[in-house]
Every structure is written in structure tokens, then in C-alpha cells.
């Protein structure tokens, strides 16, 4: 099943967002609520098979698993996958998008630095519509030359741009629209807040009775504590990424 995606929708919130997401995809690809391609939708110009499975009766079926509305969230989910469904000459697979956003360091964490100057690790811009590539290039050059965005000190300013066509079946009030996805070290503050809240609840042993009903937590809560450690390691790595010595991060003795 190459270059195909299965979506998971969990709980009431997940399914409501998923409903809007699939409605948006059907509208963009000219697929009716019954799973039939509309007469005005031309074949071969897009890749419906990324998210849909075409059954023997020619119906398009969402490739999704539902385990249990916000239109803006569904729009973001839709925009982040446009380069997969309307491929261009670059950024036409999921690996290419993720690899540019998340430079993976396999080393182990070291000390923490509370005085953090947060910065961008990478930025991915997906632009839909009628765009002049030369204008995009000039804008990127101006951002880099004037240092309008604070980037990591140990690597180049990674600003990726993927140009994508708009759906020909969905009317839009805007000639150009876009989505920016950024890997920024300031996200660590949210993880720190979650850890602090967890520590308070863990110290008070609040809400633990419900967990004790599960077999995995009958003896202890090591699984929860290990999960907390994983989040802490992620926080440490984001803090380390703000320093020039991040390349050698984790090589020192613990």
C-alpha cells in the first residue's frame, strides 16, 4: 500500500473533526457524499487514492478507522496534505515534508538550560493558488538577509516552500491561501506546563483510583512515570536545540 494514508479518529472530538476533514476532502476532489465522483470532476489530475479506496463498484471509500467542529482544524488538516493529493515537482510525499521539519538527533539528553532563547528549527509553508515562484524566492531571500525570523544557531535557516494547486471543484474567495507549519523550540513550554501539572497530581495521588482498575496499573504507576520521563527528555532536547553546541548534544557523560 505505497504512499497511502489511514486516518484514525478517536472519541467525540476526533470524530467530529474527522467528519469535517472528510467533508472537505470530498469537496476538494469532487466526490459526492455517496462516494461517487461528480460529473464535473475530471479523472487523473489528482491523487484520490492517498486517502480514499476505490471499491469494485467504483465508489470511493475513506481509508479511516473510527474508534469511538471545528472547520478551521479540518482546513489545516486538509491544507497540510494538499501536496500529497495534488502533487507537484517537489514535496509530493509525506516523508519529504516531515524530514525537513524534524531533524532527528539520536543522542541522549544532558543538562537543562532555563535561560532559553527560543528559535525556529524549521518552517514549512504550503501555498495554494496562483503564485509566482520568483516572488516566493525573493521573499525567502529577504527573510534570510534581514533575519526576520530567529533560527537555530547550529544550522542554516530552513524555510521550505511547497507550491500546490487549488481544488478545481471548490470555489474560493481568495486567489492565494497558505499554511505554515513550524518546528519551534517554544513548544517546550507547553510540555513543561504538562509536566508540572502531572507532578502536582502525582504528589496528591489525585484521580489514580480510575487507573488502578486497569491491569497495567494495579501494582504501580511506572508506566505513567516513564511517560513523564519521555516528555522531559523532549523538553531537554528542545532546550539544547537553542544552543550552538547542539550538534554534540548528548555525547558528554551523563
TrEMBL record:
Family stated for the protein in its record: Belongs to the tubulin family.
Pfam families: Tubulin, Tubulin_C
Major subcellular site: cytoplasm
Single GO biological process annotation from the record: microtubule-based process
Protein name, per record: Tubulin gamma 2
Gene Ontology molecular-function annotations: GTP binding
Stretches assigned to the Tubulin/FtsZ 2-layer sandwich domain: 90-196
Superkingdom of this protein's organism: Eukaryota
Amino acid at each position: 500500500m505505497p504512499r497511502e494514508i489511514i486516518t484514525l479518529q478517536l472519541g467525540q472530538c476526533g470524530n467530529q473533526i474527522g467528519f469535517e476533514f472528510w467533508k472537505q476532502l470530498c469537496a476538494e476532489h469532487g466526490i459526492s457524499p455517496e462516494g461517487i465522483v461528480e460529473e464535473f470532476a475530471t479523472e487523473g489530475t489528482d491523487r484520490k487514492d492517498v486517502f480514499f479506496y476505490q471499491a469494485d463498484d467504483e465508489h470511493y471509500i475513506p481509508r479511516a478507522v473510527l474508534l469511538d467542529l471545528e472547520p478551521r482544524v479540518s482546513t489545516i488538516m486538509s491544507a497540510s496534505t494538499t501536496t500529497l493529493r495534488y502533487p507537484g515537482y517537489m514535496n509530493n510525499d509525506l516523508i519529504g515534508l516531515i524530514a525537513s521539519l524534524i531533524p532527528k538527533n539520536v543522542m541522549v539528553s544532558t543538562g537543562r538550560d532555563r535561560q532559553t532563547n527560543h528559535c525556529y528549527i524549521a518552517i514549512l509553508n504550503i501555498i495554494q493558488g496562483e503564485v509566482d515562484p520568483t516572488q516566493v524566492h525573493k521573499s525567502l531571500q529577504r527573510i534570510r538577509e534581514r533575519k526576520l525570523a530567529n533560527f537555530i544557531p547550529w544550522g542554516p535557516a530552513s524555510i521550505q516552500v511547497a507550491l500546490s494547486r487549488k481544488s478545481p471543484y471548490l470555489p474560493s474567495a481568495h486567489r492565494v491561501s497558505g499554511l505554515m507549519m513550524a518546528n519551534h523550540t517554544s513548544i517546550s513550554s507547553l510540555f513543561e506546563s504538562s509536566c508540572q501539572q502531572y507532578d502536582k497530581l502525582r504528589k496528591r495521588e489525585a484521580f489514580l483510583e480510575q487507573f488502578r482498575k486497569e491491569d497495567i496499573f494495579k501494582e504501580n504507576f511506572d508506566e505513567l512515570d516513564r511517560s513523564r520521563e519521555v516528555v522531559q527528555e523532549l523538553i531537554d532536547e528542545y532546550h539544547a536545540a537553542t544552543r550552538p553546541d547542539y550538534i554534540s548534544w548528548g555525547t558528554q557523560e551523563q
